[in-house]
Amino acid sequence: MTISGTPTATGPFGYTVTLTGGCGSITANGTIHCQCASGHFGDHRQCHRHAAPSGVTYSVTSTAGSTYTWTVPTGATVATGQGTSSITVNFGTTNGNIAVTERNTAGCNGTPRTLAISLQGCGLTANFAGNPLSICVGSPVLFTNLSTGTTGSTTYSWNFGSGAIPLTATGPGPHSVTYSTTGSKNVTLTITEGASDVETKTGYITVNPINTITLTSGVGTNNQSLCLNTAISAITYSTTSATGASFSGLPAGVNANWASNAVTISGTPTTAGTYNYTITLTGGCGNITANGTINVNICTKTLNLTLFLEGLYNGSNGLIKVQGCVDGENSFDIFPGLISDTLTVELAQTTSPYTTVFSQHGVPVNTDGTISLTTVPGVLSGNYHIVIKHRNHIETWGQATSFAGSTVTYNFTDAISKAWANNMVLTGSIYCIYGGDANRDQYVDGFDLAFTFNNNRLGSYGYQLPDINGDGFVDGFDLAMVFNNNRKGVGMNTPIAPLKKK
Predict the structure, then answer these.
(1) What is the pTM of this model?
(2) What strand order describes the sheet that includes 370-377?
(3) Residue 1 gets which letter from DSSP?
(4) pLDDT tens track for 210-269
(5) CA quadruple 468, 469, 474, 475: dihedral, nearest 10
(6) What one-character-per-residue DSSP string does 383-446 give?
């Protein structure tokens, strides 16, 4: 009779063998004792604070006479105690299970006991912060370590994401990092003390592109020279990344605006000068500017004059409109609208030889005595005498007058001193330019008197030189003015030719 097999349960088992057949009730008895391992391992987490932790003890309750077989994770070894109820283990870097099987004196194997080992570093948690989180290309971010559970033995491995300078770093930091490319950046910190913990922050840093500004109007339009009161050629720029723009240095009358990533500068300058303008982009990244120059030249100046001619002056009514006539009877206005007559305006230098630098013939003078001359060259910016010449009135010079501005105003009527050598006549409360120069030699003398007298006798009419008062007839009124001014010795008085009586 043979009894064999492997017990699958614990405890004492009393057994009986009873023979069958033959004669008699014959039996035999016995007991098999099966006993399994008991006890516990303790904490299933193994603090892995060293590159190769060693001497870590694991144990179960010991049973007299039992032997114990232990297995450990790959890379770990049982340093002492194999076969006993307590071992010490030297670990590698791989997680796994520690298991033990007890075999008692009766040869019974107990149920294996297993403990999962996780090499964690005892609360080692990676963490960090960056500041600022949104930057421009080339601007720095400061990364600060916020990890916990670390010691002086902890190692750090940083990866700051694509385009980072530097791309990687070691040590806890803080680390200053710039980026050469735009976009969202993933940043990773790995801390290791035997085991490792990893913190990855996805899209953590936003790197914005640098603003740009590019001239899109014609080449050279950003640097223009033009005449005052003339519209500039529109200046345009395209921009990227900016949210707006500010402007400085533009001349009055010229405006600028930014809209939809475009800058437009346009308008008409109303003030002469050299204007260096600056466009500064706002929002986005970078202190980005564009510059240009607008030279506003006074190509022509405006000369506004007020004067009255003695022969045409009609008191409070101003100047009459000079007349023509047909067949000595029916008179008509020579000039349309409010034009009284025409004359010549010249500008002369204020030093000898008093060269004439500008002359305009056929300049209309209005019935209120005003003249607006818009053709004076802008280059004339010094001091000049204003010279008035009329067909039958005395040439009269004004005092030296500055032409530095774009508009010059001069009134001959409000003071006798406005004429060189006070060479005007007071009529009522108004100063007038002397009349009566019928032969245009710039003196009212016997020749003028004779010329006017003879035309009067002949009954001359129309737009004639001896028609001093402009009524269309050479008559006694004209003769009287010539006679009176002849008696006064009226004549031209200028810096070139002082008055000399004939």
Answers:
(1) 0.51
(2) 370-377, 300-306, 407-411
(3) -
(4) 999 999 999 999 999 998 889 999 999 999 999 999 999 999 999 999 999 999 999 999
(5) -120
(6) EEEEEEEETTEEEEEBPPEE--SSEEEEESSS-GGGBGGG--EEETTEEEB-B--TTSSSB-SH
